[in-house]
């Protein structure tokens, strides 16, 4: 795979895995853009091959000055992904305005633009989980993170850009290189740590009678599958807004039991109170409608939850 790539959020979870996959395909002319800050995210870049690293403010300056040079593809994964972030002005600028600036630059230079939207745009799922553009205006995100992503999706639809650009709505992604995410890391990582420390896993109680404790549902996606789909759209022409999920929903209990099985232990699960601050913003069921993804020509199979969790736990056991 040849060409010059820009990966924003390149030191992050999905971004660093995208760079690793690009390296595996022979590409290393990559500009990594991120905000490293004071945490351990920098460790995700160790061992990766790339041409340069820029902090996000420097990069944004060059976008506005139109001084990036020739670029074949921009994979825009950089965003504040904290669903608990309360600074709406920051989210609107970082997740919407910056994305719009970068998209406009790519369109002006005929550069492939693939960006991360989010399954959080679907809100409580009352409108379903179809990525049909006609249904986009009806979605009602439950938090400002989801709405900041939705803002750009709506703008791109209004400007009729989805025949040229690609947006990806990642569902619940888990896998290597996510440890720096703190509370936003996957429950696979959290469960592994809890089992190693205490021998048990804590899951939230349910506050809706139709869902028993631990039987809230999610579409869990291993990061290798998310990356494969991302690079498919980087390499292929056309555009659209696509769900990146398995198309199957599984319970939190299924996930916890898979972690115990991967460690060769009997399940020990306790249910705890959900913080009141998120109870009315909690999604009880998510399942990607993947008809659009398949219609776009993506044919790869998605890894089962049990296989993906086992592979990830084995990686965690080796790397910690």
How would you briefly describe this protein structure?
The chain has 320 residues and is an alpha/beta fold.
CATH top level of the domain at 5-173 and 221-245 and 287-302?
A: Alpha Beta
Average pLDDT reading: 95
Give the strand content: 15-25%
The CATH homologous superfamily of the domain at 5-173 and 221-245 and 287-302 is called: NAD(P)-binding Rossmann-like Domain
Q: Structural class of the secondary elements?
A: alpha/beta
CATH fold assignment of the domain at 5-173 and 221-245 and 287-302: Rossmann fold
Uncertain segments are none
Q: Quickly count the helices.
A: 10
In the CATH hierarchy, the architecture of the domain at 5-173 and 221-245 and 287-302 is: 3-Layer(aba) Sandwich
Strand order of the largest sheet: 3-2-1-4-5-6-11
Work out the number of β strands.
13
- Written as H for each helix and E for each strand, in order along the chain, the element string is EHEEHEHEHEEHEEEHEEHEHHH
List keywords for this structure.
320 residues, alpha/beta, Rossmann fold, two-stranded parallel sheet, 10 helices, 16% strand
Give an overview in words.
The protein is α/β, with parallel strands linked by helices and 320 residues long. The protein is globular. The mean pLDDT is 95. It has a domain at 5-173 and 221-245 and 287-302: NAD(P)-binding Rossmann-like Domain (Rossmann fold, 3-Layer(aba) Sandwich), CATH 3.40.50. The two termini are 31 Å apart. It has 10 helices and 13 strands. It has a 7-stranded parallel beta sheet, sandwiched between helices. A two-stranded parallel ribbon has the order 7-10. Strands 8-13 form a two-stranded parallel sheet. It has helices at 13-24, 56-65, 88-108, 144-158, 187-198, 223-235, 252-262, 276-279, 291-295, 305-319, and strands at 5-8, 30-34, 52-55, 73-76, 112-116, 166-170, 172-174, 201-204, 217-218, 220-222, 240-244, 250-251, 269-272. Helix 4 links the parallel strand 5 and strand 6 (166-170).
């Amino acid at each position: 795979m040849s060409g010059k790539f820009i990966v924003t959020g390149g030191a992050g979870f999905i971004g660093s895995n995208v760079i690793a996959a690009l390296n595996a395909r022979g590409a290393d002319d990559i500009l990594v853009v991120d905000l490293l800050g004071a945490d351990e995210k920098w460790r995700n870049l160790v061992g990766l091959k790339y041409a340069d690293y820029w902090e996000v403010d420097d990069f944004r300056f060059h976008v506005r000055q139109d001084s990036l040079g020739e670029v074949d593809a921009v994979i825009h994964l950089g965003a504040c992904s904290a669903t608990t972030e309360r600074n709406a002005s920051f989210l609107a600028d970082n997740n919407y305005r910056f994305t719009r600036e970068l998209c406009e630059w790519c369109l002006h230079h005929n550069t492939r633009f693939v960006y991360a939207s989010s399954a959080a745009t679907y809100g409580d799922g009352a409108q379903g989980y179809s990525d049909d553009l006609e249904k986009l205006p009806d979605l009602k995100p439950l938090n400002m993170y989801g709405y900041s992503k939705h803002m750009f999706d709506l703008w791109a639809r209004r400007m009729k850009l989805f025949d040229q650009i690609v947006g990806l709505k990642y569902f619940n992604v888990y896998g290597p290189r996510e440890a720096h995410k703190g509370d936003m890391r996957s429950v696979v990582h959290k469960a592994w740590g809890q089992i190693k420390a205490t021998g048990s896993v804590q899951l939230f109680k349910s506050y809706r009678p139709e869902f028993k404790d631990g039987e809230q549902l999610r579409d869990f996606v291993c990061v290798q599958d998310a990356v494969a789909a991302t690079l498919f759209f980087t390499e292929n022409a056309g555009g659209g807004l696509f769900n990146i999920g398995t198309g199957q929903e599984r319970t939190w209990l299924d996930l916890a039991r898979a972690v115990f099985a991967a460690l060769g232990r009997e399940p020990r699960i306790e249910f705890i109170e959900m913080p009141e601050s998120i109870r009315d913003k909690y999604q009880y069921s998510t399942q990607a409608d993947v008809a659009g993804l398949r219609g776009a020509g993506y044919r790869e199979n998605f890894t089962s939850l049990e296989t993906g969790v086992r592979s990830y736990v084995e990686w965690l056991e080796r790397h910690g």
